[in-house]
């Protein structure tokens, strides 16, 4: 008879495993989706990390999306994405976080982020210019999320998978003149600093009692309803805006308490860690992309998700 | 800024019918599970393990403990199958040990529970607790009907996810606990909320273990 105790002697010592970082072992997307999206899009989406810096008439923009330790350990691609559209008239900021439980969520996140900024800009440009600004921009944002959902359905059909395989969250901030509109589907956060230095969180709070559970994703039918639940803020009040996926939001929850310290670190560099996070010294995040990437290496036990942070702030000169 | 944990509860039937090879296999399986989780850094950082045994009464023999500090318990099988007490203790543990998200603190992942039983409840109070678990959905619960005499209907009243393991050999338990380990490793991912029908996706069960539709 088999001796069940032989499976593992009680006194066997096992050293807990440590993290390793592996290159992705599979293609970023199936060939059928690659054919639709094209080489350039796929190459850019699969590049690690994704970093963006832009200048706008009033705002400077810097953001990065980096692969989390969990995906790195498993040799998987990042599921987060970000996109920016910046003209003097219109600034669009977007972050997206593919659902880890969905096999092609990285595709959903990257395509949604790109579609949302492109389609918002295009729809806004094509809308009647005499309409009220908030209605014009808000309608363009809501319709752009609808466009993104349709695009994900098309890609799912091309690949022969369920649209739920591409599920993603999305957060969009649109700025035009004194108008700021925020649209959100799923988790993550938008943090704003007012001109007087005070902090506010705009948009969805945690949706359920449990970590990692989200009530609605793009391309679910509910996404369009959630996306249309816009929040409006006067840009004149605001000096800094931060969009973040839960890989940044969760480790510093609640942002209402940690937000001021976070903004201080982004403006002035890391001198002392926030809470229980282990943070190495880095210079002002607003001053360089390298500092931003360094800041995003903070350690917090159990926080191994992809991290995406997209910042827009007034006045500071952008690096050459 | 508290730690976001994945609480994992093993509810093991240690009534008299589990005496001998079955209970020894469960013990060995828990040791194997512990060893396997230690090889995954995400499990080391996030997974917390607890063992509740039930016979005449239910006892939480190991409180919710991080993997690196977990000590696999000894178990002896005898007595009746007080399933209701097991569910009552589980609900108590949720209240005492599991953290839900609030405005001020970050919650745990929804707990993962594995219930192993080879018989039928001998108490009369279990439906009340089973009903409470079904209504409140405080965890992703996987019930395992071991052998040919498990009361599948009682397990079914506790959770929709019931799997059957007819073979109660050490090899079968070994395969089952590998399935538990794989489930733990894949659970810490963003999912649709249970209320939206988006419960976790379990890995495929090993040969010999079937999901009861």
What is the secondary structure topology, with strand pairs?
The complex is a heterodimer of chains A (320) and B (213).
Chain A: H1 31-37, H2 39-46, E1 50-55, E2 59-66, H3 69-73, E3 80-86, E4 91-98, H4 105-126, H5 133-159, E5 168-176, E6 179-185, E7 189-194, E8 199-202, E9 213-214, H6 222-227, E10 231-234, E11 238-244, H7 246-249, H8 255-268, H9 289-295, E12 307-314
Antiparallel strand pairs in A: 1-2, 2-12, 3-4, 4-5, 5-6, 6-10, 7-8, 7-11, 11-12
Chain B: E1 6-13, H1 21-38, H2 41-46, E2 47-54, E3 58-66, H3 83-97, E4 112-117, H4 126-136, E5 140-146, H5 152-158, E6 161-165, H6 170-187, E7 191-192, E8 209-212
Parallel strand pairs in B: 1-2, 1-4, 4-5, 5-6
Antiparallel strand pairs in B: 2-3, 6-8
Helix pairs in contact in B: 1-6, 3-4, 4-5
Could you characterize the architecture of this molecule?
The complex is a heterodimer of chains A (about 325) and B (about 210). With about 325 residues, chain A is of the alpha+beta class. Chain A has helices spanning about 30-35, 40-45, 70-75, 105-125, 135-160, 220-225, 245-250, 255-270, 290-295, and strands at about 50-55, 60-65, 80-85, 90-100, 170-175, 180-185, 190-195, 200, 215, 230-235, 240-245, 305-315. Chain A has one domain (about 50-315): PPM-type phosphatase domain (Phosphatase 2c, domain 1, 4-Layer Sandwich). Chain A has 9 helices and 12 strands. In chain A, the strands form 2 sheets. A 6-stranded antiparallel β-sheet of chain A has the order 1-2-12-11-7-8. A 5-stranded antiparallel β-sheet of chain A has the order 3-4-5-6-10. In chain A, strand 3 and strand 4 (about 90-100) form a beta hairpin. The longest helix of chain A has 27 residues, at about 135-160. The model of chain A is unreliable at about 1-10 (pLDDT under 50). Chain B is α/β, with parallel strands linked by helices and about 210 residues long. Chain B has helices at about 20-40, 40-45, 85-95, 125-135, 150-160, 170-185, and strands spanning about 5-15, 45-55, 60-65, 110-115, 140-145, 160-165, 190, 210. In chain B, helix 1 (about 20-40) runs parallel beside helix 6, helix 3 runs parallel beside helix 4 and helix 4 crosses helix 5. Classes of the chains: A alpha+beta (about 325), B alpha/beta (about 210). Strand 9 (about 215) of chain A pairs parallel with strand 7 (about 190) of chain B.
């Amino acid at each position: 008879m088999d001796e069940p105790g032989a499976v593992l002697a009680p006194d066997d010592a096992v050293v807990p495993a440590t993290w390793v970082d592996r290159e992705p072992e599979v293609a970023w997307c199936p060939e059928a989706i690659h054919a639709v999206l094209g080489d350039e899009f796929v190459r850019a989406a699969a590049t690690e990390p994704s970093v963006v810096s832009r200048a706008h008439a009033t705002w400077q923009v810097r953001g990065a999306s980096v692969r989390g330790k969990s995906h790195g350990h498993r040799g998987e691609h990042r599921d987060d994405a970000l996109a920016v559209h910046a003209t003097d008239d219109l600034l669009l900021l977007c972050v997206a976080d593919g659902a880890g439980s969905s096999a092609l969520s990285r595709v959903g996140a990257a395509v949604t982020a790109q579609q949302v900024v492109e389609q918002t800009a295009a729809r806004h440009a094509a809308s009647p210019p005499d309409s009220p600004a908030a209605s014009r921009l808000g309608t363009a944002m809501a319709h752009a999320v609808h466009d993104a959902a349709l695009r994900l359905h098309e890609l799912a059909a091309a690949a022969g998978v369920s649209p739920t395989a591409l599920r993603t969250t999305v957060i969009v901030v649109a700025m035009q003149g004194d108008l700021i509109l925020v649209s959100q589907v799923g988790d993550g956060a938008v943090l704003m600093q007012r001109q007087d230095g005070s902090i506010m969180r705009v948009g969805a709070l945690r949706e359920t009692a449990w970590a990692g559970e989200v009530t609605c994703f793009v391309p679910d039918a509910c996404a369009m309803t959630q996306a249309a639940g816009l929040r409006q803020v006067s840009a004149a009040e605001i000096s800094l805006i931060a969009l973040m996926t839960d890989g940044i939001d969760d480790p510093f929850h609640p942002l209402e308490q940690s937000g001021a310290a976070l903004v201080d670190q982004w403006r002035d560099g890391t001198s002392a860690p926030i809470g229980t996070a282990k943070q190495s010294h880095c210079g002002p995040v607003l001053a360089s992309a390298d500092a931003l990437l360094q800041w995003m290496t903070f350690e917090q036990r159990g926080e191994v998700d992809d991290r995406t942070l997209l910042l827009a702030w007034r006045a500071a000169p952008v690096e050459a | 800024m508290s730690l976001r944990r994945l609480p994992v509860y093993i509810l093991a039937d240690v009534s008299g019918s589990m005496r001998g090879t079955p209970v020894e296999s469960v013990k060995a399986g828990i040791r194997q599970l512990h060893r396997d989780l230690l090889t995954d850094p995400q499990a080391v950082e996030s997974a917390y393990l607890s063992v509740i045994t039930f016979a005449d009464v239910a006892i939480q023999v190991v409180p919710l403990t991080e993997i690196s500090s977990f000590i696999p318990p000894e178990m002896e099988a005898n007595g009746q199958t007080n399933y209701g007490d097991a569910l009552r203790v589980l609900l108590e543990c949720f209240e005492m040990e599991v953290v839900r998200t609030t405005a001020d603190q970050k919650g745990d992942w929804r707990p993962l529970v594995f219930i192993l039983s080879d018989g039928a409840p001998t108490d009369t109070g279990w439906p009340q607790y089973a009903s409470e678990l079904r209504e409140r959905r405080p965890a992703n619960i996987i019930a395992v009907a071991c052998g040919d005499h498990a009361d599948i209907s009682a397990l079914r009243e506790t959770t929709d996810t019931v799997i059957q393991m007819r073979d109660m050999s050490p090899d079968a338990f070994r395969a089952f606990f590998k399935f538990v380990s794989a489930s733990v490793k894949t659970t810490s991912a963003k999912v649709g909320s249970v209320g939206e029908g988006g419960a976790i996706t379990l890995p495929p069960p090993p040969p010999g273990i079937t999901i009861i539709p």
